[in-house]
Specification:
The protein is of the alpha/beta class. It has one domain (3-323). 49% of the residues lie in helices and 14% in strands. It has 21 helices and 11 strands. Helix 10 (200-212) runs antiparallel to helix 12 and helix 12 (224-249) runs antiparallel to helix 13.
């Protein structure tokens, strides 16, 4: 990009970016831009950054208190997140925060077992305890589909309480997966390559049986909890169907499995909103927490050119002007991440953003923290040209930074707003390891330049 054009972009950025003081951030400009949106997507450019979790929670508090939001839907598994839901809503079977987080055992556990989530759970529980009307309580829900075995077990447990005969039939159907010792990827590999028949018919059969008997299950006179329990079980049965297909698709290409996963997450969101509408008699408002790569519109990125879609695109298509998405970004600092899938978590140094990237541009603005409305005309025009954008998930490989963590994007079309933090620090896990405590030696050691 020519120097003169870069300077104009910088000047526009500096003029429109609204600085945020860490000790007393003013979220009112962002809340004003959100307006009457019913689905607000809050992103993150890593799954292990303290500031992203902290600020998402703060914004969500404002949306709950000032705009009447009553649900939080996250990039987490349905059965695990539902234990948080039961805790914050004072349901007797989940009495402590530790118990509520007990389901998050699968890698990467730190995404939800961390100090920011623990503090936010406490706030949500207190808020719900102070709300007079039950339909104003806030719920916490998971959108993801990795919980194949946990979801199947949850369906069986539900049926064992209300219909032991149906539970026995469901257990027989789900026994199709017993050969794989709860290894979902082994199931996907074996069925894709024809080593074993798939269990597709079995998981569909369980859902059909559940729905066929739904009227009798819902006729019990226990009020809201009966409806909640049925919805929880039905969604677990749907997770089992979509997870079964997802694990088979993993060996057919990344685009197919990615699209299946994000379609499932948006399908879960829509079913959740329909359920809440039926329960409360009004359109619900939901905050969605997920990675930037999920909440930013895929059509404005390299993902879209590869044929991938995501939550951000599907939500915009479904909810149109009632949807709002905010991206989060950082230039450098530390992050909680692993070097490979299922590897131990570490506290790693984040390399400075590459020249020519959005991170590099934001750093040049010399505003440590800021909010930016991307749909102001001048800002939109200045940031509509493609640039590199960084994405760190649960894995960070700085040695292959450009290839592993950057993709092309048109920021103005990807998000409605951006929150930027020049220097960030690693998310603090509840289950610290010695490897995380020690941290990573800086590349400049011993000179610390």
């Amino acid at each position: 990009m020519p120097t003169s054009k870069r300077r104009t972009t910088l000047e526009t950025l500096r003029h429109h970016a609204i600085g945020m003081i860490p000790e007393a951030p003013d979220y009112q400009p962002l809340l004003d831009q959100i307006g009457e949106s019913r689905v607000v997507l809050l992103g993150e450019s890593s799954h292990g950054t303290h500031e992203f979790y902290q600020v998402r929670a703060e914004i969500t508090r404002h949306l709950i208190m000032e705009k009447g939001f009553t649900a939080i839907a996250v990039e987490g598994d349905w059965p695990d997140a539902y234990q948080i839901n039961r805790f914050i809503r004072h349901e007797a079977d989940i009495e402590t925060a530790t118990q509520a987080l007990g389901g998050f055992k699968r890698f990467p556990a730190w995404m939800w077992r961390n100090t920011e989530i623990l503090e936010f759970m406490g706030w949500l529980r207190q808020h719900n305890g102070n709300v007079i009307s039950e339909d104003r309580q806030v719920g916490f829900y998971g959108l993801d589909l990795y919980s194949l075995y946990t979801s199947m077990e949850a369906v069986i447990q539900y049926l064992e309480r209300i219909d032991p005969e149906a539970a026995q039939q469901a257990r027989k159907r789900y026994a199709c997966f017993d050969h794989f010792d709860e290894d979902s990827q082994a199931y996907g590999y074996s069925t894709h390559f024809g080593l074993m028949p798939s269990c597709e018919d079995e998981v569909i059969g369980v859902l059909l049986d559940l729905q066929r008997n739904s009227i009798s299950y819902l006729e019990r006179p226990d009020g809201r909890l009966v409806r909640d329990d049925y919805f929880y079980a039905e969604q677990n049965a749907i997770v089992a169907i979509d997870a079964e297909e997802y694990y088979r698709s993993m060996f057919q290409g990344n685009v197919l499995s990615w699209n299946l996963r994000d379609r499932h997450m948006v399908g879960t969101l829509i079913r959740l909103m329909n359920f809440l509408r039926e329960q409360h008699g009004r359109d619900p408002k939901v905050v969605v927490w997920a990675h930037n790569s999920h909440v930013g519109d895929a059509r404005a990125t390299d993902m879209g050119r590869r044929g991938e879609l995501n939550i951000g695109q599907l939500v915009r298509e479904h909810f149109r002007h009632e949807a709002f998405s905010t991206g989060f970004s950082t230039y450098t600092g530390t992050v909680t991440a692993a070097t490979d899938w299922d590897a131990p978590m570490q506290r790693r140094h984040v390399r400075p953003g590459l020249p020519g990237s959005y991170e590099g541009l934001f750093h040049e603005a010399r505003i440590p923290r800021f909010y930016l409305n991307l749909h102001q005309d001048e800002t939109y025009d200045a940031l509509k040209e493609p640039r590199l954008e960084r994405a760190i998930g649960v894995i960070y490989r700085p040695e292959t930074e450009r290839m592993s963590h950057y993709f092309g994007a048109r920021l103005s079309d990807q998000f409605d707003a951006m929150l930027y933090f020049d220097i960030t620090r690693a998310l603090e896990p509840l289950d610290k390891t010695s490897l995380w405590e020690v941290g990573e030696i800086p590349e400049t050691y011993p000179f610390a330049v």
